[in-house]
Amino acid sequence: MTLVAIPATDTQTDTHCPYCALQCGMRLTGAVVGPREFPTSGGGLCQKGWTAATVLDSPGRLTEPLVRQGGELRPASWDVALDLIATRLAELRAAHGADSVAVFGGGGLTNEKAYLLGKFARVALGTAQIDYNGRFCMSSAAAAGLRAFGLDRGMPFPVTDLADADVVLLVGANPAETMPPFMQHLAGAELIVVDPRRSATAEQAGLHLRPAPGTDLALALGILHAVVADGHLRHSYVADRTSGFDAAWRVVAAWWPERVERVTGVAAADQRRAAALLAGARRAYVLTARGTEQHASGTDTVGAWINLALALGLPGRRGSGFGCLTGQGNGQGGREHGQKADQLPGYRRIDDPAARAHVAAVWGVPPSTLPGPGRSAYELLDSLGTPGGPRALLLFGSNVTVSAPRSDHVADRLSTLDLLVVADVVLSETARVADVVLPVTQWAEEDGTMTNLEGRVLLRRKAVAPPPGVRTDLDVLQGLATRLGQPADRFPVEAEAVFDELRRASAGGPADYSGVTYARLRDGEALHWPVPDTDHPGTPRMFLDSFAHPDGRARFVPVDHSGPAEPPDAEFPLRATTGRVLQHYQSGAQTRLVPALVDAVPEVFVEVHPDTAAHAGLSDGDLASVTSRRGSVHARVRCVASLRPDVVFLPFHFPGVNALTNPALDPTSRMPEFKVCAVRLETP
Ligand code: SF4
Predict the structure, then answer these.
(1) Is any ligand 1 atom within 6 A of the Cβ of residue 22?
(2) Phi-psi region at 364: left, alpha or beta (left = phi > 0; alpha = psi -120 to 50)
(3) What pTM, to 2 d.p., does this model score?
(4) What are the Cα distances from residue 530, in Å, to 317, 454, 458, 509, 523?
(5) How confident is the model at residue 514 (pLDDT cuts 50, 70, 90)?
(6) Ligand 1 lined by 23 (C-beta under 6 Å)
(7) Could you tell me if the CB of 49 is within 6 A of ligand 1?
(8) How far apart are the first and last CA of the chain?
(9) pLDDT confidence bin for 10, thresholds 50/70/90
(10) CA proximity to 92, closest of 391, 386, 422, 381
(11) pLDDT at 6 over 80
């Protein structure tokens, strides 16, 4: 690998940050980042955004395909690399069937890439085995939103609506670190923050509730109990716009705040105060994020907070609402266009005959040839190399040996494959163990669309030329598809051409993009899906008149507390929880290449209460060993007096942290329980 020289240029390009779902507005002058007015970011950028261009010419940048020979990854030409992949895929499919090849995508891929990847898997490979890393971070919110509202759009209102809120309840979200410019929208509101840590966001809260990890659902039940018992239930809203309250209340009735206090550690008086604050607000929002979702009961946990929002009459009311803060850059669009095991483009279900017929017609194939549904992300990774499981994996935009739960086991599964192919911009930890590595373009080097956390479709424009030797993911998919016998025009390489096909494939679906065009996006139109025709202005606010269920009502769903899948015990007495820090993003594959970010947070650390550290014979700055039933990681001790003594926190941007985490899956969303597992703390 060599340092990539980016030619200096004065050309200015308006685009968006490559990282999180806030998709802050950015102006690139050549490869120099500047901020730009945009509604979600208000002209702001966080440190990750300011330094994003560093990855464009990083010495860690991949600029040529690599093929494993004699145990080493060695440079190869594109033809050699693609021919080798296609030949081995064809051999495996002939010998073991189409499902012997699996595909894994990512929530950072553009809509065009996510769409073409799903089509490639189902049409060129004929495999049902495709899923993506969004299963690790959004699926429980999606499942709960679908269940309650009949449709999943994380935030069914523009972010800027939050500016008029009197009270905002943030559950399991730390936007002050994960998306700092977002906080400007909360400046006028009283904040209630639910988080086991006194996070940067909790520091700004008027009321901070600190439940033990894994007890968030019980806390939602307690606050809802207080809403009803203290006379705050919005009877007319519940009668006119919802169904199922009585069944949900039968569960909630048994969770009075004092009982909830014993389970969660949150004082009953604070639960009642939260209920009164929310009920007394003229405009209020309930917002959830990964802390709510990443549980073996994540769908029910999000559902419990939705029930609270419904009891207060918030969803579908102008100036109030329920929303979910999507994490990954294209967390919303990435789950709509077909890289998820159970979906086809337009947020269609793959087991719906009408949906299959529509998409198959766009693709020019018989509906009966569309495979699926396949396995969910962790189940797919867990099945690699097992009897009947996939023997080859094509990975796009994901670093699973760092980001998947029980990551040591996932690395073991990868090592059993006949073929592992990784397409990435840098030599990630997963790319290092691949058989073939394909160097691909990144955000500023290509056109594409992203859908931000409020369901707004954004155009991310090409600002600089990619390094010689690097190709787009769309190029890679066409190169492989044609080698597998597909016509080239079935897999276009121009992003706008792919998007135009996506528009047709999504037409009439829940996430209808048919009225979104590159021309409208270039003109700066704010288009929130659904946009069913090119004259349609988009749908910034959903559910104002009715919800998406056939009867137009939102549904209360009875949900009960069950606790974490792995409670602490004598051998593993602490609850570990994981999350993000300001300076790093997801698996850290990109941000760990940016010197300014690495200087700020160079290594994995573990936050520990000083008494807990002392009990383990550790002091601030010591190296500790954190061990769960699945693995162990060494981490630098940070003593934090505000932390619960029974909890430790680790940022997941570093290899080894997810060796600890529990792959127990939510039964509905199939999302793993990243947010809590039992560990012990020791001197190494
Ligand atoms: Fe904005 Fe998120 Fe990028 Fe930070 S990482 S600049 S908050 S889009």
Answers:
(1) yes
(2) left
(3) 0.96
(4) 18, 12, 14, 9, 19
(5) very high
(6) yes
(7) yes
(8) 35
(9) low
(10) 391
(11) no
24 alpha carbon – ligand 1 mean position (Å): 6
- Give Cα 639 distance to the centre of its chain: 29
Q: Is omega for the bond preceding 75 within 30 degrees of 0, making it cis?
A: no
- In the reported structure, the alpha carbon of residue 103 is separated from the centroid of ligand 1 by a whole-number distance in angstroms of 28
Length of the chain: 684
Beta bridge partners of 678: 575
The bridge status of strand 284-288 relative to strand 419-424 is unpaired
Q: What is the mean pLDDT of residues 145-160?
A: 96
pLDDT for residue 531: 98
Q: For residues 393 and 72, give the distance between their C-alpha atoms in angstroms, rounded to a whole number.
A: 19
**Cβ neighbours, 10 Å, residue 84:** 18
User: What are the distances in angstroms from CA 223 to CA 5, 266, 525, 557?
Assistant: 56, 10, 40, 16
- Determine which of 85-89, 271-275, 466-470 has the lowest per-residue pLDDT on average: 466-470
Alpha-carbon gap, residue 610 to 307, rounded angstroms: 37
Token digits of residue 24:
């802050």
What sign has the CA pseudo-torsion 297, 574, 138, 115?
A: negative
In angstroms, rounded to a whole number, what is the distance separating the alpha carbons of residues 191 and 348? 36
> How far apart, in Å, are the Cα atoms of 222 and each of 167, 235, 244, 265, 273?
19, 19, 18, 12, 11
Q: Name the phi and psi angles at 481, rounded to 5.
A: -60, -45
What is the reported pLDDT for 334?
87
211 CA distance to ligand 1 middle (Å): 28
Sequence letter at residue 297? S
583 lines ligand 1 (CB under 6 A): no
189 CA to centre of ligand 1 in angstroms: 22
- Residue of minimum CA distance from atom 1 in ligand 1: 24
- What is the rounded average pLDDT of the residues 452-475? 95
- What value does the mean pLDDT take over residues 75-100? 98
Q: Which residues pair with 191 in a beta bridge?
A: 168
Residue 360 has pLDDT above 60, yes or no: yes
Check residue 119 and give its pLDDT. Answer: 98
Question: For atom 7 of ligand 1, which residue has the closest CA?
Answer: 179
The answer to whether the CB of 102 is under 6 A from ligand 1 is: no
For residues 590 and 655, is the Cβ–Cβ distance under 8 A? no
Burial class (CB in 10 A: 0-12, 13-18, 19+), 59: exposed
Look up residue 108 and give its two tokens.
């950072």
Within 13 Å of residue 387, how many CA atoms lie on the same side as its CB? 0
Q: What is the 181 CA–ligand 1 centroid distance (Å)?
A: 7
The set of residues, in sequence order, having a beta carbon less than 8 Å from that of 208 and lying 6+ positions away, is 192, 193, 195, 198, 202
Does ligand 1 come within 6 angstroms of the Cβ of 19? Answer: yes
Check pLDDT > 60 for residue 571: yes
pLDDT > 80? residue 185: yes
For residue 180, the ligand 1 atom closest to its alpha carbon is: 7
Q: How far apart are CA 249 and CA 197, in angstroms?
A: 30
Instruction: Give the 3-state secondary structure of residue 81.
Output: helix
Is 17's C-beta closer than 6 angstroms to any atom of ligand 1? yes
